[in-house]
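Mods, move this if it's the wrong board.
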Amino acid sequence: MFRFLLTLIAVTFSGPSARAAPCCAQAGSVPSLITGDERISIGASLSNGNVIGDAPAAGGGLPVFRDALSTRESRSVLLLNAASLIDGDRLQAGVSVPLQWNRIGTGSRESSRVATGDVSLTVGHETLPEWDYSLWRPRGFTFLQLTLPTGRSMFESTDSSASDVTGLGHVALSAGFVALKRWSVWDANALVRLGRVFGRGFDSGISTRSAWSGAFSLGGGISFAERFRFGGTLGVDAVSAQAVSGGGLDSAGAGRLVWIAGANLSWLRGDDDTLVLGYADQTLFGPAYNTSLARTFSLSFMHRIER
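Not the wrong board. Structure tokens:
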């Protein structure tokens, strides 16, 4: 069941979580990692999220939910993942490539764009291998993740509705740790990540400063009927204030914070394939500020090639 967990966490964090949620989210809060006995894993997930509310800046009050007259925002993402051992044992590398379809509309008008999002590269290491059984000691993986600005940022948008925005527009580097533990049919997982979003100057004359980012999640699940698992996670994703200047803008920025609750149903199809149906909700827990709030459904597939 360790093979399921990173896919489950990734599904939970697949919902939009940035300032203009459908158009500015990163490729993922967690990387593509091998956590089982395979030497290669190849996966794909298809998600669709709808923005249903907006959380104001810190101290600005309660989130405001949208009605039929509000702007409609939705995002569909096809995320392709691959990871491979590179030393035959504990060191690995992975890549995630998103293809994003944004739809933003008001009344009878709608703008729609399809484009590549931000690509992420990952190096991982099995820091805490499970050589023998322990009641409490988890299996642990350390990772470094580099996110490249291959998508279009809001500072490069040429569309008045920003439907062409598919990325942060910044290089981001993060480090983290994933812990996994199983007791018979029960399992648990935890993730912590800390990163830096680097400042950049854009052709429009706008410049941004660097900012810190972080994420933390806890989850668990139960296996049943030999090939099925039901699980849930609760996590928080945050970015510090990022100052913006130039191009008629001069702002100290504001930090962003969102909580994500998720539920997942997994099916082990044969010995090498896994299907995961996921749901992520950013409206159930708080506080949240300076972000749009979305509900997202997803379907993921992962194929493993054994060592």
